[in-house]
Amino acid sequence: MKVISLLLIIVILFSCSPNPYSATNKIYKKQARIFAKILSSTPTDSIWADSLKRPSHNANTTNFGMRKPNMVIIHFTAQNSCEQTLQTFTKPATQVSAHYVICKDGMLQHILNDYLRAWHAGVAKWGNNNDINSTSIGVEIDNNGMDSFSTAQLNTLYGVLAFLKKEYNIPTANFIGHSDVAPTRKPDPGILFPWKSLSAKGYGNWYADTTGKVIPVDFNTLYALKIIGYDLKDLPAVYRAFRMHFLGYKNDAELTETEKKILYMLMQQYL
């Protein structure tokens, strides 16, 4: 009886414990209502200048839908706990956010509607896209940047990516890392992230065996990196980002002949 009574007390205390994010959850709902009001409005008078001829009746199209994300950017949090990360993402002063946070035990926090624009990529570019935040989903994994990712985290990640790929028809090539789109600023998700395993499940491109492969004499390394999506304004940073993603180590020297073979194999998937 004592054990049962103790368990009941624990359950009652847990169920009555205050939500530490209740205040910021209210702010979330308030901001969402503001955006909903904007979306439901028709063009206002402010759009009309004196020089423009106004119609006698507004004609609002019936053919539209929500904008959908087309990329997934994977991050590590560079913090020491999931709680610390959630505190960071719920403070207006930090001006940073994401859509999903995956804790070390595999718990998933979906902190922002997928159709809303999170502030997770910052100044970033991939191919011709220089506004990554407007077209992507940000997935943050609780990791300080030095530890391996837990099995529980990766299992949750695979589930999230499977949902996102199916829900939004995201191309395989568009599952990439923060360091890929912001090589001069960011190292995440880092050299310990298992990109090859993700690619085997359909999230991100990978290369085939390069044994016996010969690259063309006129192979252009910079052209190939650009075709994949890298911004070439800082080549050492790009070499480092490429190696972190596809080779699992950091080095900003020019690519070796062996590495060029890998790059050549990858490039074929983007042509």
What does this protein structure show overall?
The protein has 9 helices and 5 strands; from the N terminus they run H-H-E-H-E-E-E-H-E-H-H-H-H-H. The model is unreliable at 7-13 (pLDDT under 50). 37% of the residues lie in helices and 8% in strands. Strand 2 and strand 3 form a beta hairpin. It has a 5-stranded mixed sheet, with helices on both faces. The chain has 2 domains: 64-194, Lysozyme-like; 207-271, no CATH class. Helix 7 crosses helix 9. The chain has 271 residues and is of the alpha/beta class. The N and C termini lie far apart (70 Å). It is globular, with a radius of gyration of 23 Å.
Q: What is the name of the CATH architecture of the largest domain?
A: 3-Layer(aba) Sandwich
Count all strands and give the number.
5
Question: Helicity, in percent?
Answer: 25-40%
CATH class of the largest domain: Alpha Beta
- Radius of gyration of CA atoms, rounded to a whole number: 23 Å
Strand content: 5-15%
Which class of secondary structure composition applies to the elements? alpha/beta
Main beta-sheet annotation? 5 strands, mixed
Could you give a quick summary of the protein structure above?
This protein is α/β, with parallel strands linked by helices and 271 residues long. The chain has 9 helices and 5 strands. The protein is globular.
